[in-house]
C-alpha cells in the first residue's frame, strides 16, 4: 500500500524498509541496518514539529557544515529519534519495484545518520530539544524526521524544512593515488556534474610555476550495478559522478599544486579547493621515504551520531593522528575493509570527507577486503555477504589504483626504494591462478640493488595471526594462505608482509614454515632468513581478541588501535614503528640494516641448486 500524498507538508518523506542482510546476521552490523524501517508507519502529529537551520550550507565554500535541529513532541519518550534523509523528498512513487515482507514498501531509502532525541537535556520533561549534526556536501538536499517507537518500530511524527549546500554539485573530496608509471599521479574526485553538463579537469603545475589543465574521465554506476540487498534496495543512494585525471611526466620529489574543476557549457568554471602534493621519487632513488600502513579503519562521526559511537571508535583517532603528522608521511596504504558501508552507499561519501585531509595531499592506496567485495555468486573467493551487495563496485569506482582490471584488485606500485605487491584476498590466490602469477611476477621483477625493500600486502591474513578466530580454527591464518605463498615469499626474499582483517596489532619473528629463523627481536642485520609478518588491522573498527596462549613466533601483540610507519633512510637502513592512534607514540619497533650482498645471499629455498664449476 502506498503512502498518500500530504499536500500540506513541504515534502513527503517515504521511510524505507531497512532489510537485515546476511552481513548483519553474521555479527558485522552496519549501524544503519539496525533501523527496521520495514515496520515504520506514518503517524504525523500536528502538535509535533522539527526544524533545521541554516537553510543554506557552505556559504563560505566549505564542503562540511553544522546544522542545528530543534524539535518538539507532545509525548516525549526515550524511544524518540532524529533521522537525516537525503535527498529530502522521498515520494513513494520513486520506490523501486521491490517486495519486502510480502508487501510493496512505502519507503525507499535508509537515513544517512541519526541521533536520539533525548540527547538534548530536558527533552523528556519538556518535549523540546535541540541537537547538532555535521553534514557534508553529498550532491542533494537534506531533511530531518522526528520519529518515535525506537529503531525497531519507528513512527514518523514530523518532517522538517529542506536545507542544502550552496552548490550541491560542487567538486569535492579529491583522492590522490599512484599511477601505472612512477612519474604519474592520479586525482579522483566526486561531483554532481555529468559530462553532458560540464567538462571535468585538473588545473595543476609545479609550485610557483605556470599551470596547465588535464582533462578527466567520468564514470558512475546505478542501482542495477549492485549485487544484492541492502545496496540494491534501502541502502541505495545515487553516487553522483566520479572523475579521474592522470597527471603525467612529474619530476621526482617536486612539489606541485592542483585544484579540480568543471567548465560548464556556458563557459563558467566551478573550482574545488586548492591543494599541493609531492611527486613520487624515481624507483631506486636514495632519499628519505616514509610509508603508513593500516587496515580496517571504517568511518566515524564528529557530531556524536550514536550509530557510530561504538562501531568504529578508533577511526577518528587514526585519521586525526595521521593528519597531525602529515608533513612526515609520503604515501598511505589502507589495506581493506575501508568504510564498512555494507551496502549503505551514502557512507562512502562520509568516508571520503573524513579522510580528505590525507587523500588530497599524499597518495592513498587501497586494497580490497571482505566488506568491499564479498557476495555469493559474484566471483568472490569467499561466499559471504559482508559487502552488503556492493560486490566491489564502490571501491573499484571511487578509488583508483593501478590495476590492469579494476574488478581484479591486485597491483604493484613502486615508491623510491620500495616495491609494493598488493594482493586481493577476495579472489583466488592459489598456485596456478591468474593472481598467483601476478604475485610471482611482482616479486621476481624488482631490482633489489635499487629497490631493496620488498613489501607484500593483503587484507586477509595469508601469513600468521594469533587472532582468536584463526587460532580456534587451528590454522593461525587463512587456510591455504601460507601453503600457497610462503615459498614465493622465501624465494624472492620478501622483507615484510602486512595484513588487516584481524582488528589488532601483531608482529612475528622472521619466519619460514612456522619456524623463527632469528632470535633477534628489535635489530636485524645482515641476511634476513625469512619474512616478518605484521597484522595491522587496528585502524578503527571494533578490536578483536587474541588467542589465550601466545605462539612462539609472535613477538609483540597489542589490543588497541594503531598503524605502522616504515621509514627507509637509504638502501641499507629501514625503521619499522607501530604507533597507537590515541597518541601517535611508538609502542613497538625494529630496524633492518644490511647491504646488497645480504639480499643476494642464499637462504633455505631461496636459491637454485648449485651446479659444478667448469
UniProtKB/TrEMBL annotation:
<keyword id="KW-0964">Secreted</keyword>
<comment type="similarity">
    <text>Belongs to the metallophosphoesterase superfamily. Purple acid phosphatase family.</text>
</comment>
<protein>
    <recommendedName>
        <fullName>Purple acid phosphatase</fullName>
        <ecNumber>3.1.3.2</ecNumber>
    </recommendedName>
</protein>
<dbReference type="InterPro" id="IPR025733">
    <property type="entry name" value="PAPs_C"/>
</dbReference>
<keyword id="KW-0378">Hydrolase</keyword>
<feature type="domain" description="Calcineurin-like phosphoesterase">
    <location>
        <begin position="290"/>
        <end position="505"/>
    </location>
</feature>
<feature type="domain" description="Purple acid phosphatase C-terminal">
    <location>
        <begin position="530"/>
        <end position="589"/>
    </location>
</feature>
<dbReference type="Pfam" id="PF16656">
    <property type="entry name" value="Pur_ac_phosph_N"/>
</dbReference>
<dbReference type="InterPro" id="IPR015914">
    <property type="entry name" value="PAPs_N"/>
</dbReference>
<keyword id="KW-0325">Glycoprotein</keyword>
<dbReference type="Pfam" id="PF14008">
    <property type="entry name" value="Metallophos_C"/>
</dbReference>
<dbReference type="GO" id="GO:0046872">
    <property type="term" value="F:metal ion binding"/>
</dbReference>
<dbReference type="GO" id="GO:0005576">
    <property type="term" value="C:extracellular region"/>
</dbReference>
<dbReference type="InterPro" id="IPR041792">
    <property type="entry name" value="MPP_PAP"/>
</dbReference>
<feature type="domain" description="Purple acid phosphatase Fn3-like">
    <location>
        <begin position="50"/>
        <end position="167"/>
    </location>
</feature>
<dbReference type="InterPro" id="IPR004843">
    <property type="entry name" value="Calcineurin-like_PHP"/>
</dbReference>
<comment type="subunit">
    <text>Homodimer.</text>
</comment>
<dbReference type="Pfam" id="PF17808">
    <property type="entry name" value="fn3_PAP"/>
</dbReference>
<dbReference type="Pfam" id="PF00149">
    <property type="entry name" value="Metallophos"/>
</dbReference>
<dbReference type="InterPro" id="IPR029052">
    <property type="entry name" value="Metallo-depent_PP-like"/>
</dbReference>
<keyword id="KW-0732">Signal</keyword>
<dbReference type="GO" id="GO:0003993">
    <property type="term" value="F:acid phosphatase activity"/>
</dbReference>
<dbReference type="InterPro" id="IPR040974">
    <property type="entry name" value="Fn3_PAP"/>
</dbReference>
<dbReference type="InterPro" id="IPR008963">
    <property type="entry name" value="Purple_acid_Pase-like_N"/>
</dbReference>
<feature type="domain" description="Purple acid phosphatase N-terminal">
    <location>
        <begin position="174"/>
        <end position="278"/>
    </location>
</feature>
<feature type="signal peptide">
    <location>
        <begin position="1"/>
        <end position="25"/>
    </location>
</feature>
